[in-house]
Design goal:
Number of strands: 5
Radius of gyration: 13 Å
Shape: flat
Strand content: over 45%
Largest sheet: 5 strands, antiparallel
Oligomer: single chain
Distance between the termini: 31 Å
Helix content: 10-25%
Length: 83
């Protein structure tokens, strides 16, 4: 996905399932990253480790790593969060 309009369209369309997600900041490869948790049951479940590529102070790219059981512990992130 490229561009604000395309990304907004995705987030408000097929990506709407992530609405209400929680982001926990971490660092990865010397840059900003987040553990993303989607609402599930009475809390939140690990969904994606998101790394950001920042150029001139703006987000130029995002990479999502979906193997949460593998990556979250490496960053000290739990697999679930309470409500």
């Amino acid at each position: 996905l490229q561009g604000v309009t395309t990304i907004q369209g995705w987030l408000m369309g097929r990506g709407i399932a992530c609405r209400g997600s929680r982001l926990v900041p971490v660092a990865a490869s010397g840059g900003p990253a987040f553990g993303q948790y989607k609402p599930e049951g009475d809390g939140f479940a690990a969904w994606s480790l998101i790394t950001l590529d920042v150029v001139d102070g703006r987000i130029a790219g995002m990479t999502h790593f979906l193997d949460c059981p593998k990556y979250f512990p490496r960053f000290g992130l739990p697999l679930t969060l309470p409500a």
